[in-house]
Structures are given as C-alpha cells and as structure tokens.
Amino acid sequence: MANTDLRVQLTENLDEAEWEWLIPHVQRDAVILVAVELDLLDVGVAIASDNTLKVQTWIDEALITKPSTAQLGEWNTQHTKRFNTLIIQPYVLVQEKAAA
C-alpha cells in the first residue's frame, strides 16, 4: 500500500523542464538520467522506497546513469531541449523527450 501512496505522491511531482533549468542540478551532481525504456515513476518509487536491488540492476544495465560528458556537451548546444523530470531529493531524475 505504501508504494501506491508513494506513486500517487510522486505523480504530482512529475514535470517537464528545459535543459537550462537543469544546469544548476547538473553542477551539483544531482541529475540522474533514466533510459526512455524505463518508466520514470517506477524509477522514482524504487529510489524513494530504497529498493536497492532494483536500482542496482538498472545501474548495472546502464538504464540509469549520470549524464556523460558527451551528452552534457550536446545538451548545452540545445538550450530548448526538453526533459521529463521527477525530483526525488536530493536527486533530479530526467528522461529525454523526443524532439517534437
């Protein structure tokens, strides 16, 4: 039941952000990139509920990572690039949105 409540609560925190809004969070090393094949809410619930086994599996499969230097460089040239975001203190989970 707790995870259901947590999922509902986190749904309210789902948002969309432009790259420029995320830069300060990258600078404090708080951005976690979530692969598009994962559900952002599933990842948020797993992190918030300390499901270390599931989170570690995603890390091992490189489905959740820190943004690479190459990705950061690419995003810095696309200031209007948009991401789906979910804040799980102290982290900001981000997922690339397909270009419209």
Report on this model:
This protein is an alpha+beta fold. The protein has one domain (2-96). It has five helices and five strands. The chain has helices at 2-11, 19-27, 40-48, 52-60, 69-76, and strands at 15-18, 31-34, 64-65, 82-88, 91-96. It has a five-stranded mixed β-sheet with strand order 1-4-5-2-3. Helix 1 (2-11) crosses helix 3. The longest helix has 10 residues, at 2-11. The protein starts with a helix and ends with a strand. The mean pLDDT is 93.
What is the topological layout?
Blueprint: H1 2-11, E1 15-18, H2 19-27, E2 31-34, H3 40-48, H4 52-60, E3 64-65, H5 69-76, E4 82-88, E5 91-96
Parallel strand pairs: 2-5
Antiparallel strand pairs: 1-4, 2-3, 4-5
In short:
This protein is α+β, with helices and mostly antiparallel strands and 100 residues long. The protein has one domain (2-96). The protein has five helices and five strands; from the N terminus they run αβαβααβαββ.
Fraction of residues in H or I helices: 40-55%
In terms of DSSP E residues, the strand content is 15-25%
Helical run tally: 5
The number of distinct β-strands equals 5
Note the gap between the termini. Answer: 37 Å
Tally of distinct domains:
1
SSE class: alpha+beta
Low-confidence parts lasting 5 or more residues at pLDDT below 50? none
Estimate the global geometry from the Cα principal axes.
Answer: globular
Q: Give the rounded overall mean pLDDT.
A: 93
What is the CA-based Rg, rounded? 13 Å
User: What profile does the largest beta sheet have?
Assistant: 5 strands, mixed
Oligomer: single chain
Order of adjacent strands in the largest pleated sheet: 1-4-5-2-3
Q: What is the chain-wise order of helices and strands?
A: HEHEHHEHEE
